[in-house]
Queue: 2 jobs
Job 1
Amino acid sequence: MDIPKFLFHYYELENGPFRNITENGYQEAEKIQSQISKGWNSKRPNNYIELRLALEKRIKEQLILKGGKPNRNDPFYFTLGECDWAKTWYINPGIIKIPLTDFRSEHISFTYPDSMVSFQFYDEPKLATYRKDCNGQVFLLDEMNDLINEYGIPSNEKCLTEERLKYDKYIEAQIWDDEVINEYKNKA
């Protein structure tokens, strides 16, 4: 199976693209989260910011151990391939589609599926029903063919028909560099 050729970034049009809630630290993230009253992101748990900061640290550490070279403390989040479900997170969604080849491979990490889901499945014994060997890990671009060949590409159809796959909505890509992002931010 082929790796999708594009990364998709979903965002609230009113706020603009490429805004990571954790990029300015804990206090600012808490302030931003407390102001979100509509849409999917308004339903986050009370400890979401702590979870997100700890998770970003784990992902970054794993990326570095595998030879990645992040240029940021926090990543920009994408889906590998299109994900219609991600549009539902926003009241008025915007979408930016970027060719995967625009990025340097040492600035990209992947999780299967969403990073929060993947690491929760890995960490929580009560979620063993949904756990796969790929959970709780970060993957590099050169590992994606093997990963996709083993687990396939998540889809809404699979989520709806197989209980053990119900949280496998997409493969998440984390971009750890500003260069390409800034080009697309200026075009948006």
Note: Residues 6-187 form one domain.
Job 2
Amino acid sequence: MVEQLSTTSTRRRFLQTGVAVSALGAASIDMRSAVAVEIELTAAEATIPLVGEGHPATDVWAFNDRVPGPVIRARQGERLNVAVTNGLSEPTTVHWHGLRIPVGMDGVPHLSQPPIKPGETFTYDFELKDAGTYWYHPHVNSSEQVGRGLHGALIVEEANPPEVDRELLWVLDDWRLDQEAAIAPFGNMHDASHNGRLGNSATINGAIRDVEPVRAGERVRLRLINVANARTFGLAFRDLDPWVIALDGQPVEPHRLGEQALTLGVGMRADLIIDMVGKPESESVVIDGHYGANFAYELIRFSYDDAPSLPPRFDDRPVALLPNPLAEPDIASAKRHRLVFEGGAMGGMTGAMMGGRRMSMRELAGKGRLWAINGMVPEEIYREPPMLTAARDSSQIIELVNRTAFEHPLHLHGHSFRVIKRDGRDEPYQPFRDTVLLGVDETIEVAFVADNPGKWMFHCHVLEHQGSGMMGVIEVL
């Protein structure tokens, strides 16, 4: 089914909205049946009141005239059938970020499917193997198409969801707007060579909102999705101290966030359980401070109504979500690889190989290529031969090394991997993820079972980085 997003907007320096989604039922799923959930999406130009009342409307590109697009909800084990019609004046696709699906449904132009031409329709059809929080977006001209609003949430419900009073979904985005609330032009080489297209207006669910109404004593499940072009969100929940129960759709051992901020690079997701411990008529502020105190701002406030606090009804520690059916990598027998990321401004890269010959950084920049992996730069995005291959069902370890001046959220299509080490130290909880944030001068090891055959993108999800060369292909034979 497709859920309508209901928003109420008010004005503030950063533009937000939140949306409450009704609590999930706990009905069990017959995993032997694959009921089809059929949906139609149309990508087309639209106009929305992004900045809010009293300001000009913003011309966007939208799925079904909405930004974000419709929230798609289905149950684990069901089939999803989505007919996507292209109402744009340029080709497009839809990638189902985080889902382990057949490569022909993955939405990468030329690598997975022919681009959907203007006026044409392509139907995506696949089984939803994993419960969790996912999202969808194009992979053609990604920086502009996603940056103009083409994205939406995909929620795959568990058979036995955690007991909460209600559920919230926050789709976090970041827009670069001018004084007339129009989206600024794309194609900035400074963005591509630096931190990506950072905006000046942060939104939640595509509209302005100062507060999220809550009731004292209630327990809320909050699903968070970062769909921005480049912005990393570092959310501090202050006195609320949420439980983290899932990352990138995959369950983790429930643990308190504590004094740490919740860091979400582009493409990353998190599921939290939050007990609203404030008093009636009080407020709790959520601060985004990822880029330092000088750039920190108030993202939104939880505002408690005047109703009496609900009595305690839940155990303190939430019950862990059941794991998804992911194969566990065999670390001892895994084949090891090393991927070194170089390039960009202030990175020190003098040149790299492209099209069979070494080119200077100036030559590469002239061709719109600014980043390299293991000294190689893709000549044709999406059409390059694999940078590494893996036998089907084999265990793989990839060491990711950042020799650039910027962080990179690295996303592997078609698989989830365990994050096992960071700068030589064991990663806490060693979560399964599909996107990992590689910090400046950082080295991360990830491990996975290459059990999904095909040619899969592995790329930086700062979309200006991906479009200017920070991507490659991993082939599972």
Note: Residues 142-147 form the longest helix (6 residues).
